[in-house]
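USER:
I wish I could look at a protein chain and see how it folds. I am handing you a single protein, as its sequence and its fold in token form. As I understand it, each token names a local backbone shape. I hope you can help me see how the letters and the tokens relate. The protein I mean follows directly.
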Amino acid sequence: MATTFLEDAARTQAAEAVAAIESQTAAEVVVSVRRASGDYAHTDARLGAAVAFVMLLVLLFIPQEVHLFAFPPVVLLSYAAGVMGGRLLPSLRRALTPRKLQEDSVRTAAKAAFTELGVSHTSRRTGILVFVSLFERRVEVVTDYGVDTSLMGAEWQDALTQLSAALSASTAPEPFLQALRRIQAPLSRVLPRLEDDVNELPDMPGAVA
């Protein structure tokens, strides 16, 4: 999934979508893509512990006699296998990680990226960060002070909902990019493009490691 979103063709399409949006609004839109917003090592550890515990029960209760010296290496290898399974199977890792933790991780990472990418440096404080976190399949939108989202009402909220829904439903970038264009209408209504507007932030998506 990460490769699909970060390959050159997808990044070019995203830049075109951003340029189209900014042609109608004074807002400065930045798209940033991250593979994951947290390392979730504790999820891997819990999975490893569960696998090791199951293997321990197997060793204890199988009818065949198992030498005690075999217990430590088998249990340790089972733990390692569980940890690696979490790292190699993102869908399993995602399912075992609490949703609230994922939401909090994405929100925190988005706020950090907002500062790191200089989205707050526009002259009219109209920067908008559309932060895409691929592992969690979540989109977090962070707006600067000059973007009054309350004036955009239900149309804006619906556009944000469509963004997350598109990313959650498909591993391809096209549905997400189609949903991204939906933010143009409420932005152009509340923040119409001015004659002296200049492009202050790059249109090409940035990748935050």
Remarks:
- Strands lie at 28-34, 127-133, 138-143, 206-207.
- The chain has a mean pLDDT of 91.
- The first helix runs from residue 2 to 6.
- Residues 167 and 186 are 21 Å apart (CA to CA).
